[in-house]
Amino acid sequence: MRRIAWDVSRRAICSTENRFVFRATFSSSTGLCQQAGRTEVSKVKERNSSSSPRSNPQQLSNPAQGGVDAWASGGASSVFQTQAEVLGTVSFQHDDGLRFRDHLQQFEVEYVESMAAIGRIPGSSNRREMVGEREMATRQCLARALKPLFPQGFTHTCKVTATLLASDGELDPVTIAINAVSAALAASSIPWHGPVGAVRLCSSNGNLIFSPTTAQLAEADFTLLYAGTSNDAYVLQLEGTGISEDALMAAIQAAAKVAGQAVEAQKVLVRQAETSKVSIPMRALPDPAALTRIASISLSRIEDILRDDALDCLQRGNLLDAAKAEAMEAMRSAGAVRSERLRTPGSSLVASSDLDYAWPILQRHALEKMVLGQNLRPGGRGLADLRPVSFQVDVLGGGVHGSGLFMQGEAQCLVTATVGRDLEDRRTEGVLGKGSDRVVVHYNSPIAIASQGRTERVEALQEGRAQSWFLQQALTPLLPESSELPFVLRIVANTLGLAGPTAMHALNAAVLAASSANFPLARTIAGVTIGCFSSSTEPGQPAADDRKGSWQAGIPQARRRELVTDVGLEEAELGDWILQVCGHDQGISALQLDCHRSGLPLDHIESALDRAKRARAQLLTSMRQSLQQRDSADGPRFGKVAIPKDAIGRLIGPGGSSINALQDRFQARVVVSDMGTVHFYAPNPQQAAAVKSSIEVLTGTGLQVTCLINADPGQGLLTALTVHSRSSAA
To answer: What region holds the K Homology domain (predicted)?
Structure first.
């Protein structure tokens, strides 16, 4: 059932399609703040003031004529689902002035969750909402869904904001937020090749449930977040204990169908809006004539560097930088270089920005010739080959509970695992309620290694928090029940060598570190990355390159795609997309898709999952061999002791003095349940035995306490033991 209403005076549209209700409000102007000027903006305000809900409150009774519209923005959309509402707004600033070396799109995404949406006050000390890992991951999810659909070379400032206005505390607002900002962008005049639709589903007892509640998610076998169209996926996020490739494909196809319905509902808004996209210059593109000149000088050199099997990742990068400097010097010697302000398109004279913009295009062209034409990759690898891997356990000493080092080619990731009591879990509070994380992952991006500036540092920190959330979701289903093992696990991942996507490297090292700490996981999992190169992109997609010339020879003319396994640094920067897949022998436990140039067609997902399955099997075999060779005789130990309920107080002591002294003396973690079961964790077998004996002594007779005191005088534990000895004697 679909209901569409349109009020011309407010230029607001309300469209209902199945599970979502879309309502878009947009300005009749171009939406370009500086280009429109003060006069046009005042006209927009005057035109909307007469129909504003503030001046006519009775209009609020009609959802197509009132409510929250954010009319001052370039585009806005409110999306309703049951009792949840998200307002998506977009603002755009067009700068007519020259902005040299503006390679990166100035694209900012904000996601705001207010506790007022569920009628609660935040529990923080200042009673304000704090941005946590889940909110940061949602921002990154919104960016992954929207950014690939901007035109190539688009670097103008654009800000997208999704604000949760109301919620019933049951539905995850992420999908509503994606649909809201997508509708806002599609209904605006900002150049964007959308819209996209988003849907979340879960599986329970073999049945797919769309838009599940929090209770249904807690009982589900897996949950899937899909954003894209009915043909292409831009966001894929899977969390679960293990799902087969066939079952995952069925879930993705079902989600794509529902997402396509959301896309059609948004297209209705766009058609009724009758707004046209503004034509603006794409600054981050080289002059075609300058590109041809640069290619004639440097393309063959780039191809030789990428084909050299003797070079590692760092050496290739240094040689490519040197080749770029040589190209500029050669053109300067030939008198073919002009300053930025004298740059003349079509003159074949090169400005420094032309070289900056042309260089990644030429590198991608060289990689396309290798991958699509010769089935080769940098370093001499085949398309399905993994780089040499190395697994090391117990690489750190001291008080570290567990550590693991994973190396793959030039990539290195060091992970430490720390075991804590259940009281040391991370408490969370949000619109979906309060919770706790038994696995806490802190993923540190390779900031110092990458030599990044301040802006990139902030982006790296945000990406690191989002990756921390993804890794945490991948590890959480592997933990034992808290009743069986009331301990928490903290994972700290540090990238020591950057040579491609690092999230799966951190996951593999985290499994090693957990094994080093003897923390039991339900299954051994491994992660791998799959990338893609294509000779062209789908018509209308922003990744399509309008590059013609003789220098393009060598790439097959017919449309072709090739998958690459274990994505390297150059492939990650220049490829179409990256699929991160982790799992075990029986299935996939977590998955995440990052699109750079184009979406992932549904008919290519099955082959990508099959490629990941074969690569994952190789990693699991190597990982198990390394873990079997490890000598764990002196490793950490878990233990359990049953004591009488009336002895719990003696074990804990006044204010926790006894149990704290016990933990400090043996560097142990002790958890006492109300039923008298005592779980403990110690760094080695000797201290584990001492902890068990001390627990028995503390909960036993005064004679036993006296014997222990005489056996080891002068320790900090003795004061607490002596006090309890006197108490028991009394």
So the answer is: 635-700
Superfamily of 389-428+437-523 according to CATH: GHMP Kinase, N-terminal domain (3.30.230.70)
CB atoms within 10 A of CB 374: 10
Q: Using CA atoms, how far apart are residues 655 and 113, in angstroms rounded to an integer?
A: 38
The domain over range 286-380 is classified in CATH as 1.10.10.400: yes
From the list 581, 499, 580, 567, the residue with the least C-alpha distance to 533 is 567
User: Which H helix or E strand runs over 405?
Assistant: strand 402-408
Q: Is beta strand 587-595 parallel, antiparallel or unpaired with respect to 577-584? A: antiparallel
Q: CB-based burial of residue 599 (10 Å sphere; 0-12 exposed, 13-18 middle, 19+ buried)?
A: buried
DSSP symbol at 607: H
User: Same fold for the domain at 4-196+250-273 and the one at 389-428+437-523?
Assistant: yes
Confidence of residue 552 (pLDDT cuts 50, 70, 90): low
Which fold would CATH assign to domain 637-729?
Ribosomal Protein S8; Chain: A, domain 1 (3.30.1370)
- pLDDT, the chain, mean: 78
Whole-angstrom Cα distance, residue 646 to residue 181? 59
**Residue keyed to tokens 């309008």:** 546
Q: What is the pLDDT of residues 16-74, one digit of tens each?
A: 344 566 555 444 333 332 222 222 222 222 223 333 333 332 222 233 333 455 655 56
Locate tokens 């879309």: which residue? 22
Taking the alpha carbons of 299, 280, 101, 159 in that order, is the dihedral positive or negative? Answer: negative
Each residue of 355-396: pLDDT tens digit? Answer: 888 999 999 999 999 999 889 999 888 999 999 999 999 999
Percentage of the chain beyond pLDDT 90 is 39
Residues 6+ apart with CB under 8 A from 300: none
Q: Hey, what are 538's tokens?
A: 């789908």
Q: Please report which confidence band the pLDDT of residue 550 belongs to, taking 50, 70 and 90 as the band edges.
A: low
Amino acid residing at 439: V
The mean per-residue pLDDT over the stretch 438-445 comes to 88
- Helices and strands: H and E segment counts in the chain: 19, 26
What tokens were used for 35? 């280009």
In this structure, of 55-69, 72-86, 493-507, the range with the lowest mean pLDDT score is 55-69
Say if residue 539's pLDDT is above 50.
no
- Please state whether beta strands 526-534 and 577-584 pair in parallel, antiparallel, or not at all (unpaired): antiparallel
CATH topology of domain 4-196+250-273: Ribosomal Protein S5; domain 2 (3.30.230)
**Taking the domains of the chain in order of start, what are their residue ranges?**
4-196+250-273, 286-380, 389-428+437-523, 637-729
Kindly report the pTM of this predicted structure: 0.82
Give, to the nearest 10 degrees, the angle between helix 454-475 and helix 503-516. 50
Res 577: pLDDT: 94
621: its two tokens: 């075999």
Answer yes or no: are the C-beta atoms of 276 and 28 closer than 8 Å.
no
The two tokens of residue 62 are 């009609």
